[in-house]
Design brief:
The protein is of the alpha+beta class and about 300 residues long. Helix content is about 75%, strand content about 10%. It contains nine helices and four strands, in the order ααβαβαβαβαααα. Helix 1 packs across helix 8 (about 215-255) and helix 8 (about 215-255) runs antiparallel to helix 9 (about 270-295). The chain is elongated, with a radius of gyration of 31 Å.
């Protein structure tokens, strides 16, 4: 275990020396990787912000349950108890038929309602699900519609389905962009490591003559690719964070102009960690492909 740890420490030190030996090339490589990673990373951050904005502007979706006109007080109480016992619901509001009639009268329909012999409106419940999940809304609507004395269930969540469809489309586009740029980064790393192998071919041949294994020869290149990916990931995070900081005042001013309160949120720790892991993984993959091919050719 000590020998394995020592070999990796030596490989890391060797990789760092190679990066410091060419500071301009290292900086340019980090900038290329960082800019390529910043585009999809910034896209995912903006999608999260748009989803948060849509939830704040549109409010929580609701499901309305309209009962039968012949529902008794006991049956209404039973339905209310069953609704309040649903873990999937965040809120339950009972709207008596008399209150609904009064609301219509207050909205300018008093003359029309005065001509009615009896109240035609049913008792109703307005419930709010805990999660904005279209599948959950459909499941709850089906469940409530099967209850006795529930005449009609109205799902006020069409905007949720449209929002989820739009965000899913945007996320798909960002994911495709991320896949294309990821492939480009693998190619860039592949070519960078290839150049490193070509410039150190004489050193590699001497090391082989001294009995070095392929794993020993490959290890510094693996760490070089990972470190390049890590530097690129840090540059990408910096670009996204700086962009969010520069855009935040303008976005807040625009929101205030429309009477809303909204602020752009930068990437959180989970997103930053995912970005760095992806960057290092792409660097390792490009290195692995390059080392496997070009060291085999030099044998």
């Amino acid at each position: 275990m000590r020998a394995w740890s020592y070999q990796h420490r030596k490989a890391i030190a060797h990789a760092v020396q190679r990066l410091l030996r060419q500071p301009l090339g290292t900086l340019l490589s980090a900038l290329v990787v960082g800019i390529a990673l910043a585009l999809p990373a910034g896209g995912f951050v903006l999608v999260d912000n748009v989803a948060s904005l849509a939830r704040g502007v549109t409010g929580s979706p609701e499901i309305s349950l309209y009962l039968s006109l012949d529902a008794t007080d006991a049956e209404v109480s039973d339905i209310e108890s069953r609704l309040r016992g649903q873990d999937a619901l965040a809120g339950v509001q009972f709207v008596p038929r008399d209150m609904a009639l009064k609301q219509l009268a207050d909205n300018g329909l008093a003359d029309v309602l005065d001509g009615l012999e009896r109240n035609p409106l049913p008792h109703a419940f307005i419930v709010t699900p805990r999660r904005e999940d279209p599948e959950l809304f459909d499941q709850l609507r089906t469940t409530f519609a099967a209850w006795p004395k529930v005449e009609h269930v109205q799902l006020d969540a069409a905007w949720v389905q449209r929002m989820h469809s739009l965000l899913a489309l945007v996320e798909l586009g960002v994911s495709l962009l991320a896949a294309l740029l990821g492939a480009a980064l693998v190619i860039i790393t592949f070519n960078t490591i290839r150049l490193q192998i070509l410039t150190q071919r004489a050193e590699i041949d001497v090391t082989r003559l001294l009995g070095a294994t392929d794993a020993f020869i490959r290890r510094p290149f693996y760490w070089l690719g990972c470190l390049q990916g890590l530097l690129g990931g840090l540059v990408a995070w910096s670009i996204v964070a700086i962009s969010i900081t520069l855009l935040r005042p303008s976005v807040e001013a625009l929101a205030q102009a429309y009477g809303a309160v909204f602020a752009l949120n930068g990437p959180d720790m989970r997103q930053i960690a995912a970005l760095l892991v992806v960057a290092v993984s792409l660097g390792w993959l490009g290195t692995a492909l390059s080392v496997r091919r070009h060291l085999r050719e030099s044998e």
